[in-house]
Design brief:
The structure is a single chain. The chain is an alpha/beta fold. It has one domain (about 10-315). Helix content is about 50%, strand content about 15%. The chain has helices at about 10-20, 25-45, 50-65, 70-90, 100-105, 110-115, 135-145, 160-175, 190-195, 235-245, 275-295, 310-315; strands spanning about 105-110, 125, 150, 180, 200-205, 220-225, 230-235, 245-255, 260-265. The strands form two sheets. A seven-stranded mixed β-sheet has the order 1-9-8-2-5-3-4, sandwiched between helices. Strands 6-7 form a two-stranded antiparallel ribbon. The chain starts with 7 loop residues before the first helix and ends in a 7-residue tail after the last helix.
């Protein structure tokens, strides 16, 4: 087993900050976490090397004809600052009350969720890697009394280093353990079906871009229009919604200030009754058009800038 990897170093920093914040009065933790994340994010951006270059390349490819080099460089730095803060918040969530969570994460559209649950067929909440994504909206929904199952990738992998498994993961898993989660395997697993048939909520990401995103063929995956190009997405949530007659509601967590966000639960999508490729594409396009609206308004808040080669995923090429 590898003892430590370069990628573990930021997580060790986040872990140290999480432990240090526990020593402070609860009322001070949130304010301090933001200040510490700004510092850690700047350092992380400087030392990340390949990650920083990938983020810069992605921004230049998508926004280079509209923004100056200086503006793009500022966006790259802001991405690292935001990601650092999100990770620190995720690790401190178990210690926050519903009042503390509601102080920086507000919700609009709960009436849409309530109305959909009254339909009795279960609800698919379609998340995105956008804004204050991750476990924060999940924890607030839990604190508000909603029952749900979250479909999220495991926080630990077989080839992770000794440092990650023994020093980082025990802290990160504190939040994970508060949720009923399913590790996705590409199929409609029985717990997903039971969740919806019991008229509960299933939360799943609509913009998951995994290694197989480019190779999935219809009906498992399709390319949908996005930012003037196309994004390869999985169709599972839409096909599951059609099968079980469950409502599917996208939600987005958008910034309202530097330290406050709003979770917007949108009205149910009206899915196409056509099971053809064109019918599923119409459903995906409903989602990507909403996602594109928020990404265009708040470009630094989409999580995939730092993780994925968007020139490949969006079907672009280096000459464009």
């Amino acid at each position: 087993m590898t003892f430590i990897r370069k990628s573990d170093i930021p997580f060790l920093g986040f872990t140290a900050i999480t432990l240090a914040l526990r020593l402070l009065p609860a009322a001070q933790r949130f304010r301090r976490s933001y200040a510490l994340a700004n510092f850690v994010g700047r350092v992380w951006c400087r030392v990340d090397g390949a990650g920083t270059e990938l983020t810069r390349k992605n921004y230049e490819a998508v926004w280079g004809d509209r923004l100056s080099e200086q503006a793009i460089e500022e966006m790259v730095q802001d991405v690292y600052r935001l990601v650092a803060w999100h990770k620190i918040i995720n690790d401190t969530l178990p210690d926050l009350t519903v009042e503390q969570l509601s102080g920086f994460l507000h919700i609009e559209g709960l009436s849409h969720l309530q109305a959909a649950l009254e339909g009795g067929k279960g609800v698919i909440l379609l998340a995105s890697h956008f804004g204050l994504h991750g476990f924060t909206p999940l924890m607030l929904l839990k604190r508000l009394g909603y029952r749900y199952t979250a479909v999220v990738n495991a926080e630990i992998k077989a080839d992770d280093s000794w440092v990650y498994k023994n020093l980082v993961y025990p802290i990160r898993s504190r939040t994970w353990q508060h949720f009923n989660v399913i590790d996705p395997d590409g199929s409609p697993q029985r717990p997903m079906i039971e969740c919806l048939r019991n008229n509960e909520i299933m939360i799943i990401c609509g913009d998951t871009l995994e290694d197989d995103a480019l190779t999935l063929a219809f009906p498992q995956g399709l390319r949908a229009p996005f930012l003037g190009h196309s994004l390869p997405l999985k169709t599972g949530p839409y096909r599951l919604s059609r099968w079980l007659k469950s409502s599917i509601l996208p939600f987005f967590v958008i910034p309202r200030s530097e330290t406050e966000f709003t979770m917007i639960i949108e009205p149910p999508m009206t899915l196409n009754s056509d099971n053809s490729e064109a019918g599923l594409l119409a459903d995906l396009t409903q989602y990507t058009s909403r996602l594109e609206h928020y990404v265009s308004d708040y470009p630094i808040h989409w999580g995939h800038w730092r993780h994925d080669d968007l020139i490949v995923l969006l079907g672009m090429n280096d000459s464009e």
